[in-house]
Amino acid sequence: xxxxxxxxLVLALGLLAALAGGPLHAAExxxxxxxxxxxxxxxxxDVVLAAARSAVPGDVVSVDLKRDDGHWLYxxxxxxxxxxxxxxxxxxxxxxxxxEDDDD
Length: 104
Known about the structure:
Layout: H1 7-38, H2 45-55, E1 59-68, E2 71-79, E3 85-91, E4 97-102
Antiparallel strand pairs: 1-2, 2-3, 3-4
């Protein structure tokens, strides 16, 4: 018998290691966002959503919070009443609409 583990075991351990990195990273991102909210660096999500919807009417279908060049940005995808998808970038602290693009 070979001293190396069976191939299936190696593949399963590799898959588990890959999956373990995802939730931990997401938890760290959530902690960073929570600290930014508590310190006043970013505004609450419901306020950001209202600002984005007033600029670009429709249903928000995805939200992503990122730190870019020292600023927190929300990237939202909005499905408009006309069926078009738009990407809207909002400064998470000031609520200023920084960019909006048609996805279609």
